[in-house]
Amino acid sequence: MGVPVFEISKEFMFSAAHQIRFHGGKCERLHGHNWRIRVHARASELNRIGMVIDFADLQKLVGDIGGRFDHRNVNEVPPFDELNTTAELLARHFYEEANRALQQREGGRVRVSKVEVWENEGSLAVYREE
Predict the structure, then answer these.
(1) CA 51, CA 98: separation in Å to the nearest integer?
(2) d(CA 102, CA 35)
(3) Residues 11 and 36: beta-carbon distance below 8 Å
(4) pLDDT tens readout for residues 1-18
C-alpha cells in the first residue's frame, strides 16, 4: 500500500506576446497567446483545517508568478530575456517558482507535482519531476 497523497490544482490565465528564438518558422515572429497555467499542489498530510492549501492562497501564489508576464512581451521578462519562451520552459519556470514559494510558506509540507501550460486550447506542455 502506497503513501496517501492529496492533490489540488488551480488555474491562472494571462495574455502576453512572445517569439521563439531560432524557431525558423512563423513562431519566430512576435505573436501573442492567452496563456493558461495550471499548477498542481500535493501533500501527504493536510493542514490543521483539512486542506492541502487554500485554493485562494494557491491562486495568489500562481498569480504573483504569472502577473510578471501579463500584457508583456515574455522575451523581455527575466529569465526569458535569456531563455527561450517555449511553453515547456514556461512550465518549468512556474514549477520551480511555485515550489520555492510553497517551501517558504508551508515548510516543505506542500509541493508542486506538475505544471501544465497551454498556449491555446490545442497546445499543452507539462513539466513534472519523477
Answers:
(1) 17
(2) 22
(3) yes
(4) 778 899 999 999 999 999
